[in-house]
Amino acid sequence: PRQEQDIPMSFDRFKQMFRNLITLLLTTLRNLNIFPIRSFGSNITRIEVKHLGQLTTRLYLILLLISFVILSLYTAVKPQTLINTYMRPLLDIYNRLLLDHPDSIQCPCSSISISYGKFIDIEPVFHQICSNQYVSDEWRTNILAGLVSNLSFHSQDDYRRFLPAHLQFLSGLCNLSKQSTNDSINQFLSSSFVTAHLLPESIFNVQIEPFITKSKSNTPTDFARLLSLLRAINHGNAIVTSYGTNFEYIAPWYNMTYSAAITQPVMYNDNQCNCALTANCTIQANFIQTNPREIFQVCGLKMGCIPSESFLLSTLECFYNLSCIDLIQQFTSNNSMMNTSLLLVNDQ
Prior knowledge:
Keywords: Membrane, Transmembrane, Transmembrane helix
Transmembrane segments: 21-39, 59-77
Order of helices and strands: HHHEHHEHEEEEEEHHH
Largest sheet: 2 strands, antiparallel
């Protein structure tokens, strides 16, 4: 019986101690003031300072408790990130993971740079005439086989004096454009694309498109700059053509012992355009038949000071016209090419 009485007495004593502890805690919290007197100034009494300090402390503790509760709830409900590592995943797996986790997926590259030539293939498309027989040495040799070797035999306004230079310039222009384009492509493909992480296809296309566009725009610009330089050198140095189309040599008739021949610029457009002043003097290209005299116009083509300049001011319509090709063959006395004319035009 004594032991049974001790248990209720111990429990009552514990309850009393717990009540006293709670009372002490509440009293301490009620009277707690963590703000010093100087925080409230000197215009109020000590009793008011104590009361305001207690209220402020209670408000501070309440706000602190609320903050801890909110932080605890946020931590409890925040989704946990699970990290999975895939060693060398296939592209299909990467695309699937990219769709499921677009914001968190990371795929570092084993190499941060790769040349464009490893994943880009560029096939340039040139003007169709540069892919035809018109620019081949064989076609040019055959069609010019009937011309006399001394082109000065023809009058200055006869297109036969310009035809060899025009065909040679057309071939050279195509070769130069191909070389310039291929050099630009090789330069672009040998440059490196730098990235530390594998990029989604959409982002990759957005990043690489400006480089491709810039390369495409720079290629014709570089070619035009090179061609402009060559034209300026030819005209600026007053280089005399071997066809006698921009300057002609004149020996003074009154002094047969004079050892030098002077040069005189050729005039075009009824003596209105001087080859010494401008390189783009041109007239319509014509074949001249002497007996009887008859003029045959060559559509689209021009003659002028420098064959290259006159050809640049011409059009290519003659090479698409069977009658024009036949006319050229007729005045070069090359009947062997007549059977292939239609084929060449149809290829275009």
